[in-house]
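#lab-general

N.A. 3:47 PM
ok so I finally got the sequence cleaned up, no stray characters, all 124 residues accounted for. can someone with queue access submit it? mine expired

B.Y. 3:52 PM
send it over

N.A. 3:53 PM
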Amino acid sequence: MPWWSWIVLWVALVALALLFVIVLGFKVWRDASATMRSLTAVSEDLGQRWEKSSQLAQEALVTEERNVVPGSAVFATPEQMKDDYLAAKEDRRFARLQRRVARRKERGQLQSLRDIEALQDVAL
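B.Y. 4:20 PM
back already:
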């Protein structure tokens, strides 16, 4: 075999390897871009669902009365339990505020400006 045939052989092998790498890179790029397009579509869909469910939850929170039955926490959603907890926490805070104001009034003590403003905010 003449010496120039080895050069031709190696040039052909390098060209085929380079072609293989380019084709493989193009295929990976297409698959990655298709994955990103589907990921974008799914994230938009989930965003719309999240907005819709949060809007429905806000509407239900305003219009719906909550009846807490002992043992219902087992079957409730975490959002319901959080809303119940926050509502009960606010009720307890307001009850403490009313007791504190009544106690100070009973004893003839000065009322805290913070308590007066909180009661005025609730009265409005």
